[in-house]
């Protein structure tokens, strides 16, 4: 890929998704583009990028999806889920005890491991049994990943990453060499393809937003824009959870970091509460 | 330094597992069947055991049942290494006292992740 082609591709990707491409990763970019070349019948990457100038939406979307990173795992960064379970959830259970409504948005869900991990934590807390209404929305820019997430079927390799065996046995059904998430967990999650640069108008006000391992692919200006817009749909006492590599972003952009809980931020300074310990 | 007993009738798998565990700062010991593993545990109880399922003389599940009956046998974290993911096998092993599972073939990332999940790295 010559530098002119790289610049063009990087520009399209940044304009459409906010994602920054690094020129040093040209080999990885070419590897990711080759399936698109084959799928659409192009001779080579140069031909594909030439056609991209004409703006055929299906082709642009396929190129964008090939460039997104979809690596994920159940309970990835275990501490995040402990913070959600032990700090965020107990406080919200008290704060929402009258309405018994909880709205959670998982903003970059990849193949669904993160929203299903959240669903498992909520299931453990038995909120639905106690009459709570849980709205758990999961989105990703990659429509193929969203379709996979909706299917909720994972390989043996995928369920081995981060998922304790007891959760596997109790929350999945085996299908040949794969594992399917239980219906009651799948029904808890509403999936939708969504670009974080698009309008957030369709989203409800949320009590918790998981936006993990997505911001790090954006430049500072795009990060600020996304965090601003998350702030607009986050409840005044709502919590934002970001990835370990993104833990300074929220702080820099006006969110209030939680004490001793890296990656957890509040929209505004929370009322002092005793830290609850619910570790099993 | 934490200790790990690698129990497998394949010498190659034992060597691969030991190399990975050494890189993860574990002191390792090997046994090629359940009976030898029990002797090793009586000599010194390890912190973690990587346990194969099918072995001559004493299978992994029989070893595990014997281990958990020992007065000090609840100490080691037992990671069962299996090639089949049949829920019935898994349930049987959990009932016998297994803590976690690793599907063969394993690599460094998978062993490290499982050890992290059980709080050993």
How would you explain this protein's 3D organization?
The complex is a heterodimer of chains A (280) and B (121). Chain A has 280 residues and is α/β, with parallel strands linked by helices. Chain A folds into two domains: 3-67, Chemotaxis receptor methyltransferase CheR, N-terminal domain (Chemotaxis Receptor Methyltransferase Cher, domain 1, Orthogonal Bundle), CATH 1.10.155; 78-266, Rossmann fold (3-Layer(aba) Sandwich), CATH 3.40.50. Helices cover 44% and strands 18% of the residues of chain A. Chain A has helices at residues 3-17, 26-40, 45-52, 57-67, 78-95, 113-124, 143-151, 156-160, 165-171, 183-186, 220-233, 249-252; strands at 101-106, 133-140, 153-155, 172-175, 178-181, 189-193, 206-211, 234-242, 256-257, 264-266. In chain A, strands 6-2-1-7-8-10-9 form a seven-stranded mixed β-sheet. In chain A, strand 4 (172-175) and strand 5 form a beta hairpin. In chain B, strands 2-1-3-4-5 form a five-stranded parallel β-sheet, sandwiched between helices. Chain B has a single domain (2-117), classed as Response regulator (Rossmann fold, 3-Layer(aba) Sandwich), CATH 3.40.50.2300. In chain B, strand 1, helix 1 and strand 2 (26-31) form a beta-alpha-beta unit. Chain B has 121 residues and is of the alpha/beta class. Chain A binds chain B through residues 78, 156-157, 160-162, 164-166, 168-169, 174, 177, and chain B through 85-87, 90-91, 94, 98, 100-103, 110, 113-114, 116-117.
The CATH top-level class label of chain B: Alpha Beta
- What about the largest sheet of chain A? 7 strands, mixed
| Main beta sheet of chain B | 5 strands, parallel
What name goes with the CATH superfamily of the largest domain in chain A? Vaccinia Virus protein VP39
The proportion of strand residues of chain A reads: 15-25%
State the distance separating the first and last CA atoms of chain A: 52 Å
CATH level-two architecture of the largest domain in chain A: 3-Layer(aba) Sandwich
Helix-residue proportion of chain B: 40-55%
CATH level 4 superfamily of chain B: Response regulator
* Number of H/I helices of chain B: 5
Total number of distinct structural domains of chain B: 1
Order of helices and strands of chain A: HHHHHEHEHEHHEEHEEHEHEE
Widest sheet, order of strands of chain A: 6-2-1-7-8-10-9
The Rg value of chain B, from CA coordinates, equals: 13 Å
Structural class label of chain B: alpha/beta
CATH topology-level fold name of the largest domain in chain A = Rossmann fold
What is the H/E string of chain B? EHEHEHEHEH
Most extensive interface, chain pair and sizes: A-B, 13 and 16 residues
């Amino acid at each position: 890929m010559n530098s002119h082609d790289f610049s063009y591709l990087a520009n399209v990707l940044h304009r459409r998704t906010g994602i920054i491409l690094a020129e040093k990763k040209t080999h990885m970019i070419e590897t990711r583009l080759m399936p698109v070349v084959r799928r659409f019948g192009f001779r080579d990457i140069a031909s594909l990028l030439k056609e991209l100038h004409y703006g055929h939406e299906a082709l642009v979307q396929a190129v964008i999806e090939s460039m997104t990173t979809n690596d994920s795992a159940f309970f990835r960064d275990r501490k995040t889920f402990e913070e959600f379970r032990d700090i965020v959830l107990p406080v919200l259970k008290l704060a929402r005890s009258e309405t018994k409504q909880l709205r959670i948005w998982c903003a970059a869900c990849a193949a669904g491991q993160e929203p299903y991990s959240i669903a498992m934590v909520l299931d453990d807390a038995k909120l639905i049994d106690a009459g709570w209404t849980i709205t758990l929305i999961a989105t990703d820019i990659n429509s193929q990943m969203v379709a996979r997430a909706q299917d909720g079927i994972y390989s043996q390799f995928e369920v081995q990453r981060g998922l304790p065996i007891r959760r596997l046995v109790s929350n999945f059904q085996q299908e040949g060499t794969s594992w399917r998430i239980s219906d009651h967990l799948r029904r808890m999650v509403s999936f939708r393809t969504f670009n974080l640069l698009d309008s957030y108008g369709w989203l409800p006000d949320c009590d918790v937003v998981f936006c993990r391992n997505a911001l790090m692919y954006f430049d500072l200006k795009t990060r600020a824009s996304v965090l601003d817009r998350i702030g607009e749909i986050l409840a005044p006492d709502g919590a934002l959870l970001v990835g370990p590599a993104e833990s300074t972003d929220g702080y820099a952009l006006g969110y209030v970091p939680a004490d001793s809980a890296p990656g957890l931020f509040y929209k505004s300074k929370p009322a002092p509460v005793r830290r609850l310990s619910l570790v099993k | 330094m934490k200790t790990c007993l690698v129990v497998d009738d394949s010498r190659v798998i034992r060597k691969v597992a030991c190399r990975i565990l050494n890189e993860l700062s574990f002191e390792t010991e090997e046994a090629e069947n359940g009976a030898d593993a029990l002797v090793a545990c009586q000599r010194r109880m390890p912190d973690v055991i990587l346990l194969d399922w099918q072995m001559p003389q004493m299978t992994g599940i029989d070893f595990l049942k014997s281990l958990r009956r020992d007065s000090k046998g609840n100490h080691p974290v037992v990671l069962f290494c299996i090639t089949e993911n049949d829920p019935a096998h898994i349930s049987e092993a959990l009932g016998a006292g297994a803590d976690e599972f690793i599907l063969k073939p394993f690599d460094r990332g998978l062993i490290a992740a499982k050890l992290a999940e059980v709080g050993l790295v």
